[in-house]
């Protein structure tokens, strides 16, 4: 890192109020920076006022708290719902969607404050360093990034948590008052993720008390809860609880309500090994109750309303989009194009899905749509309608032609090369 000698430079630090970023705050001041602590509210259960007081006590020039919950849902989570986005077939990517939202807010603060530097506390082995920094450079090309956990002068000095504790004591940084859990955790309103520590052994069963968003399905209510979810252009616009009569239409309230319902029924838990972008496999445990409910509901209404050939293309785009988001390329031209195509595909995805949540499961019960491609008379075994069964014979023969030709070729090959 270049030395700051002539006049103080300002750096905007992505701050959590925890031990790591508090130590980074003091360390940045040691390097001669004025530090602005930036915190994004994306629905995590943090004491923001305590973080503000802590940052001020440690010498931060300014503390900026930005509430990003609404835009996180409407601009990022809803895009994931429209896409049926899953990384490697299982992960709904709560952290992946949050990072470009958080980093965009950090860039905005840096530009408003005239800061040439931004900093974060992501490790040098994970995905988040990539997600943060690709967003920084995409939105603020001339910015300079300080990533302490990739800098020898920092990681050689702080080789473990004990070194951070010692540094905190020397610099009067308040230490955590509760014991640290033997794993790391990241939370936002979409999910909670757990990794590292005792979870690094992929065969070590997760402790039963690890989960914070969802109840153990075995101890969840013994009666299912039925919901109606209405979509327009592939996005949820209404949730109605058929048990209680409650309804939600505001995007943020709707998503939080689905978290609540899914959470009490133990919906949305997964334990997986995934491929990090930087090349290593990692084990992660995730809770995504509301996102899981919406995934199943949207998948159903999309299949009901979308042409099958269009959906094949859209499914391929969904896989590509999931990789782009996971790898941090939200603001890339290819991801913008993919999102545009997916949005276009959703123009006719409208209607209402009825489902039940029960003992960790989401069960689809029914669906209806004014734009459905389902023709009950056409598909009925009891009504012939406009369909002529005789036509199926020609359809079968045309499709069989390729198979017949393949068989003819194989027989020819077998004659020319008889088995010894």
Keywords:
globular; single chain; 5-stranded parallel sheet; 420 residues; 5-stranded antiparallel sheet; alpha/beta
Structure in words:
By secondary structure, the protein is α/β, with parallel strands linked by helices. It is 42% helix and 19% strand. The chain is built from 13 helices and 14 strands. It has helices at residues 19-30, 48-57, 69-83, 94-113, 128-139, 152-155, 161-170, 251-264, 289-305, 308-326, 333-345, 376-379, 390-416, and strands spanning 10-14, 34-41, 62-67, 117-119, 144-146, 184-187, 192-195, 225-232, 235-241, 247-248, 269-275, 281-287, 351-358, 361-368. The strands form 3 sheets. The chain has a 5-stranded parallel sheet with strand order 3-2-1-4-5, sandwiched between helices. Strands 10-9-8-13-14 form a 5-stranded antiparallel sheet, with helices on one face. A 4-stranded antiparallel sheet has the order 6-7-12-11, with no helix packed on it. α2 links the parallel β2 and β3 (62-67). α3 packs across α4, α8 packs across α9 (289-305) and α10 runs antiparallel to α11 (333-345). The chain is globular. The mean pLDDT is 94.
What is the gist of this entry?
With 420 residues, the chain is an alpha/beta fold. The chain is 42% helix and 19% strand. It has helices at residues 19-30, 48-57, 69-83, 94-113, 128-139, 152-155, 161-170, 251-264, 289-305, 308-326, 333-345, 376-379, 390-416, and strands at 10-14, 34-41, 62-67, 117-119, 144-146, 184-187, 192-195, 225-232, 235-241, 247-248, 269-275, 281-287, 351-358, 361-368.
